[in-house]
Amino acid sequence: MADQLDGSPVLAEVLGDALPALERFHAKLAEEGEPRGLIGPRDVDIIWERHILNSAAIVPYVREATAGARFKTVADVGSGGGFPGIVAAACLPDHRFTLIEPMERRVEWLSECVDLLELSNVDIIRDRSDAVIAQVRKRKMHPFAVVTCRAVAPMTKLSGWTLPLLKSQGRLVALKGRSAQAELDKAAKEIARFGGQSPRVVEAVVGPDLEPTHVVLVDKR
Fold first, then answer.
1. Residue 128 marked in a binding site
2. Record's HAMAP family (predicted)?
3. Domain limits at 130?
4. What is the pLDDT of residue 151?
5. 150 labelled ligand-binding
6. Fewer beta carbons below 10 Å: N end or C end of the chain?
């Protein structure tokens, strides 16, 4: 089944130098994504827009958060099919990505994608984020400049799974649905409790003439 955006100039415009690698990722998703339970049957002809460009929408916000940082480190919590972690890593070769995913079959998929896309800037941790948070608290791991995620949990839960991974002045960049602002309102206490401040929702550009997406930004004190 052809993808609606196959061959569109929008792809090169948005993805730039990452396009050849992400074309390989797209082909793998189109062939194996649905049988392996990583995308739904209705997504097969809209992988570019729904998954790859949607994930790439966080790239400017990650760049902004790491501008001037010595260590451009990003943790992607609940990486699943590689959204947004694999896509963002392909777009930001000068950033170091750690993909955190507890499910073995998804870790296997992520490893295959890292090899296929020849991403030398990616590490994968098979664990839950609270185990990684424990490592950060014990100073066995450095906290991250940015934490990203997509469709992992509502902000009431997500705050505790992501904000403790951030260094001071770091930033959470989370892809969210239309209810993003309502989620933030509901999670105000949790966000404050885990050191978050200035929570806000931005409308992020997915591509020319494509529907924008919602990104939640939270700064770490």
1. no
2. 16SrRNA_methyltr_G
3. 56-220
4. 87
5. yes
6. N
